[in-house]
């Protein structure tokens, strides 16, 4: 069972639709509900529509738990940003919001994008992941962001600065690849 943590994302219905299309057994819970991560094979942290210290604390706790229990995690937009912050990275506020389709270039082979080297993705954010700590690495970049896809060097923790649920076939493939990681890891149907 895949856990989707809703951080107030404006694209939650699109994510639900994609997971339904992929036939993924999942449960959606709000960030402020009591969550027992050990009940799930992996977790997706959604984007959010407005800043909140309460949302930040809840997501930091989930990232620590996912690391401790070696649960695969995928952070989408804000989810990627909070992943970077949780490990000591930093964000920068952009002069203007990045909104619309963008080309992302894969610079390092990884299980989320294989075999794609160039992706068309949908972005909607005002912050960028600016600096990564040594425990995280950049897997892809775009003209507007050096850290479009990030990953932990040891654990199965991934972040996408963009919204795969709104990114057509390329986004569908990335979510499908994340689900495939869960299925391979648990050796059961998610």
What does this structure look like?
- The chain has 190 residues and is α/β, with parallel strands linked by helices.
- The protein has helices at residues 12-21, 53-68, 78-86, 168-186; strands at 2-6, 26-30, 42-45, 73-76, 90-106, 118-131, 136-141, 149-152, 157-160.
- Strands 2-1-3-4-9-8-7-5-6 form a 9-stranded mixed sheet, sandwiched between helices.
- It is built from 4 helices and 9 strands, in the order βαββαβαβββββα.
- It is 28% helix and 33% strand.
- The model has no long low-confidence stretch (mean pLDDT 94).
- It is globular.
- It has a single domain (2-186), classed as Class I glutamine amidotransferase (GATase) domain (Rossmann fold).
- The longest helix is centred in the C-terminal third of the chain and has 19 residues, at 168-186.
- β-strand percent reads 25-35%
Report the mean per-residue pLDDT as an integer.
Answer: 94
Main sheet specs: 9 strands, mixed
Query: CATH homologous superfamily?
Result: Class I glutamine amidotransferase (GATase) domain
User: What's the level 1 CATH class?
Assistant: Alpha Beta
Question: Which word captures the global form?
Answer: globular
Secondary structure: number of strands = 9
State the CATH architecture.
Answer: 3-Layer(aba) Sandwich
Using only CA atoms, what is the Rg?
A: 15 Å
| Distance linking N and C termini | 5 Å
Main sheet: strand order: 2-1-3-4-9-8-7-5-6
User: What helical percentage do the residues reach?
Assistant: 25-40%
* Contiguous uncertain segments of 5+ residues: none
Number of domains: 1
Order of helices and strands: EHEEHEHEEEEEH
Helix/strand-derived category reads: alpha/beta
Enumerate how many helices there are, as a single number: 4
| CATH topology type | Rossmann fold
